[in-house]
């Protein structure tokens, strides 16, 4: 074809259904209608071409200067050779043009051969190549195009010749005009094909393409015409013409490479952006099971990607095979010609690809196995490349049968597909990573259930759409006990087992989340309060059944709180967070054997009070509402005052005296415990400093929170406070609970060692209530252990408590620690502790927590009593 070849690729189809292979893009009725329209268009082109050829043959008798029998075959060879040097231009609308040197033999043909010979040479050369390449689906259309191109060229040349008044011979200007008519004819045919296939192509693109084709055609025709005229007038000048032709060919090849590189870069960018864009569309929702690996099939997205690759390679068909699951067969997306119904590639030769390189298969060079695989696909050749990431097969890309009439896939196509596959694999891998991050953002890593953000999104829509919904909040109270006794790995096993029980009981469609620890939430849609209570009771019974953990059977207890969405505030329906909060209030209200509790509006006062306490705490510190009381500690048996424990108190102007057990956890949860600890520490060190000024050496103990042990800057703050008040470090004791240390021992131990290195004494409070104490006690840099008051209070009536206290005293002394007993309220308990060898006593028997003023009075009275006893003893000795 002179100048430009128009090659409609036919209607784009998706995948054909196969028995053993899932198809994600079945051929549509619209695609079949496009195919029928194109066939009618082909018959019209062929009919018009034959009629035009007959008319021109009758109108233009040949009057050339050469009458040799071999000119026809020579022209056919020239057309074939010119096509081999063609430059392919692929248009996204599905049409590909091949800019070639065919204008050169065509323009020479005007002078050396009749119309019929040139027409036959061009048609025979083109059709022969198509048949040899087995591209039989477009032979009739291309034959009609060949006829119209050469016919239009000779018709225009004849008209120009008559207009110039020289009907006897062919003027060079007539030959040039006729040669330029051929690419214009092919362009018009291609535009008509675009309309038949109902694809869009902007007018600007058409004009730019037509302009470039005319420029290239003019250059080729000029070179051919000049060469013929020079050689015909000066036969010895053929080397110069040959040199000019070689230079022009080199220029075209350079232009071809630049054009190819530009198109390839655009294609690579397009494919990567398509994959990335399709991944971002799902980024705002919690990942489902299907797209956890980032390959959720969207027919539109992947069909567009396959079409882009097909157009860039000028292939008859591109097949994307993507593996969704490791054990599942590949899903298929097809662009271009339909796959034959017999195509069932499972583990055939084309898919057994080592490494990540492109393999080029030709049916003429293939072994029996490869030939069978190609025939199953209805292809004569194929480029196949795997998509791999870290030795994991993500999929396979296949390109079948290049559309060029003159040649198959070349080295540039192999390089392009290899680079494109690499980019596609990287884009898919990045999409997998984004999907994994998205999944992790919305799911609990331990149980695989939704986390709080994921639950908020998933439960939000059904809560808005259904008038009756119930939020369940479930807590397992045995989790912390199991974690402390057996370690957190065992506690995690219980959480996983509880999550499975809940999922089995609720079903797969009910939104279920693990919020934190052993706390779960679920949304029941369409449940009324009565049904919700019955279901919550049943769920609690299932969750409270013993849990087999390894070879143990762990008893458990579950508490369930629920809140109905029909409860409204100011006429507005509650959202997920508000409903969760109400269910949380309900589960906290389960006490005294009532394990299932429904939310009632009066419960909201609990959260309101807690919120007020947290928000007003800083102001309370500044206003003097918060104060520090001190409870004395005395030695056994001497009963000397060794120190005091600093205890915080809050006198609220509205609520009155607020119990520390109420506001301290709230302040700690709100992240304000640092301010509370600093306040108590400053007050306590100031009190010690004033005692030192009075000649008294009394130590003070301050309680630490879990959050203090997680603050790497806390030891430095303590050191600054000691320096600021001028208090020796040995007069400061920090008390910490077992649970506080055991919450994160790897993080707490460095902080404790740094504090101990300053000379501060460390005491383990409430010792004996945990299960991991013996394992970690020797690792902790502690100086004291404080026996929990529950054991001390029970010593007089419970022999087991007495035995526990005695064991703790002996254990502490064996480790060189000072043993402090809390909760000493009776003389009997004090005497028992003294007999056991306990070092220090603290409790109501000695004194209740006292304000600074009352503590001063208590110390003065105790000093006076001590002086009176000493004086009485001296007088007794003197008498």
Automatic annotation (TrEMBL):
Question: Pfam families, alphabetically?
Answer: EAL, GAF, GGDEF
Q: Where is the GGDEF domain?
A: 467-601
Enumerate the UniProt keywords alphabetically. Answer: Membrane, Transmembrane, Transmembrane helix
Q: Is Cell membrane found in the keyword set? A: no
Matches recorded under SMART domains: EAL, GAF, GGDEF
Q: Which SUPFAM superfamilies match?
A: EAL domain-like, GAF domain-like, Nucleotide cyclase
Q: Where is this region: Disordered?
A: 1-31
Query: Is the Transmembrane keyword given for this protein?
Result: yes
Highest taxon, organism lineage: Bacteria
Residue ranges constituting the EAL domain according to the UniProt record: 610-863
Q: Name one GO molecular function term.
A: cyclic-guanylate-specific phosphodiesterase activity
The record's listing under InterPro entries reads:
Cyclic-di-GMP_PDE-like (IPR050706), EAL_dom (IPR001633), EAL_sf (IPR035919), GAF (IPR003018), GAF-like_dom_sf (IPR029016), GGDEF_dom (IPR000160), Nucleotide_cyclase (IPR029787), Rev_trsase/Diguanyl_cyclase (IPR043128)
Q: Where are the transmembrane segments?
A: 40-60, 106-132, 139-160, 172-197, 209-231, 237-255
Q: Which PROSITE patterns match?
A: EAL (PS50883), GGDEF (PS50887)
The record's section on PANTHER family has: CYCLIC DI-GMP PHOSPHODIESTERASE PDEF, OXYGEN SENSOR PROTEIN DOSP
Name of the protein this chain belongs to: Diguanylate cyclase (GGDEF) domain-containing protein
């Amino acid at each position: 074809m002179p100048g430009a070849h128009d090659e409609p690729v036919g209607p784009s189809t998706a995948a054909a259904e196969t028995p053993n292979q899932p198809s994600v893009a079945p051929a549509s009725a619209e695609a079949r209608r496009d195919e029928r329209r194109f066939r009618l268009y082909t018959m019209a082109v062929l009919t018009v071409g034959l009629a035009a050829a007959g008319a021109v043959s009758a109108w233009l008798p040949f009057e050339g200067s050469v009458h040799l029998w071999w000119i026809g075959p020579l022209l056919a060879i020239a057309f074939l050779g010119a096509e081999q040097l063609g430059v392919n231009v692929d248009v996204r609308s599905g049409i590909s043009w091949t800019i070639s040197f065919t204008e050169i033999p065509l323009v020479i043909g005007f002078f050396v051969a009749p119309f019929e010979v040139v027409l036959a040479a061009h048609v025979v050369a083109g059709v022969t190549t198509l048949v040899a390449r087995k591209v039989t689906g477009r032979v009739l259309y291309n034959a009609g195009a060949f006829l119209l191109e050469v016919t239009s060229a000779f018709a225009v040349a004849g008209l120009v010749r008559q207009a110039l008044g020289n009907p006897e011979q062919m003027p060079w200007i007539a030959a040039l005009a006729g040669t330029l008519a051929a690419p214009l004819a092919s362009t018009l045919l291609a535009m008509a094909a675009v309309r038949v296939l109902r694809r869009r192509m902007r007018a600007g693109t058409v004009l730019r393409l037509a302009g470039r084709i005319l420029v290239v055609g003019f250059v080729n025709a000029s070179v051919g015409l000049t060469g013929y005229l020079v050689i015909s007038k000066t036969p010895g000048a053929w080397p110069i013409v040959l040199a000019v032709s070689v230079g022009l060919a080199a220029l075209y090849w350079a232009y071809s490479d630049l054009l190819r590189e530009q198109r390839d870069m655009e294609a690579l960018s397009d494919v990567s952006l398509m994959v990335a864009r399709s991944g971002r569309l799902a980024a705002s929702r919690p990942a489902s099971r299907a797209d956890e690996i980032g390959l959720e099939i969207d027919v539109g997205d992947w069909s567009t990607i396959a079409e882009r690759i097909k157009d860039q390679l000028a292939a008859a068909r591109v097949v994307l095979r993507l593996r969704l699951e490791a054990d599942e067969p590949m899903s298929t997306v097809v662009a271009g010609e339909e796959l034959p119904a017999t195509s069932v590639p499972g583990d055939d030769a084309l898919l057994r690809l080592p490494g990540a390189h492109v393999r080029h298969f030709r049916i003429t060079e293939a072994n029996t196995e490869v030939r069978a695989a190609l025939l199953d696909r209805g292809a004569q050749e194929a480029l196949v490349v795997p998509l791999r990431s870290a030795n994991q097969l993500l999929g396979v890309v296949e390109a079948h049968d290049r559309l060029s009439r003159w040649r198959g896939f070349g080295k540039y196509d192999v390089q392009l597909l290899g680079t494109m596959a690499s980019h596609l694999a990287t884009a898919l891998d990045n999409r997998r990573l984004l999907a994994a991050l998205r999944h992790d953002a919305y799911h609990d890593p331990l149980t695989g259930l939704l986390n709080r953000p994921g639950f908020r999104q998933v439960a939000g829509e059904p809560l808005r759409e259904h008038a009756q919904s119930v939020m369940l909040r479930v807590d397992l109270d045995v989790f912390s006990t199991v974690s402390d006794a057996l370690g957190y790995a065992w506690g995690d096993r219980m959480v996983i087992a509880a999550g499975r029980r809940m999922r089995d009981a609720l079903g797969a469609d009910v939104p279920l989340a693990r919020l934190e620890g052993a706390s779960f939430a679920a949304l029941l849609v369409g449940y009324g309060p009565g049904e919700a209570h019955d279901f919550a009771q049943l769920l609690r019974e299932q969750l409270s059944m013993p849990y087999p953990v390894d070879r143990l059977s762990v008893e458990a207890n579950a508490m369930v709180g629920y809140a109905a969405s029909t409860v409204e505030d100011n006429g507005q329906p509650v959202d997920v967070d508000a409903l969760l909060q109400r269910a949380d209030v309900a589960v906290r209200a389960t006490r005294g054997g009532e394990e299932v509790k429904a939310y009632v509006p009066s419960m909201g006062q609990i959260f309101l009070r807690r919120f007020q306490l947290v928000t007003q705490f800083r102001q309370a510190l500044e206003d003097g509402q918060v104060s520090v009381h001190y409870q004395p500690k005395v030695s056994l048996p001497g009963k000397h005052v060794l120190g005091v424990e600093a205890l915080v108190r809050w006198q609220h102007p509205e609520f009155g005296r607020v119990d520390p057990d109420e506001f301290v956890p709230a302040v700690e949860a709100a992240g304000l415990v640092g301010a509370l600890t600093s306040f108590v520490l400053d007050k306590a060190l100031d009190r010690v400093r004033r005692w030192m000024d009075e000649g008294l050496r009394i130590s003070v103990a301050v309680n630490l929170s879990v959050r203090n042990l997680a603050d790497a800057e806390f030891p430095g703050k303590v050191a600054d406070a000691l320096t600021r008040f001028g208090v020796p470090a040995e007069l400061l004791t920090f008390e910490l609970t077992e649970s506080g240390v055991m919450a994160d021992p790897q993080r707490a131990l460095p902080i404790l060692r740094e504090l101990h290195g300053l000379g501060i004494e460390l005491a383990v409070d409430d010792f004996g209530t945990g299960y991991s104490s013996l394992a970690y006690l020797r690792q902790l840099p502690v100086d004291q252990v404080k026996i929990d008051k529950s054991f001390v209070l029970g010593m007089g009536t419970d022999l087991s408590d007495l035995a526990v206290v005695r064991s703790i005293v002996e254990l502490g002394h064996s480790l060189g620690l000072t043993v402090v007993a809390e909760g000493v309220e009776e003389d009997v308990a004090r005497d028992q502790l003294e007999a056991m060898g306990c070092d220090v006593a603290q409790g109501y028997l000695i004194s209740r927590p006292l304000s600074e003023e009352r503590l001063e009075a208590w110390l003065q009275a105790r000093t006076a009593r001590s002086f009176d006893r000493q004086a009485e003893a001296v007088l007794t000795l003197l008498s």
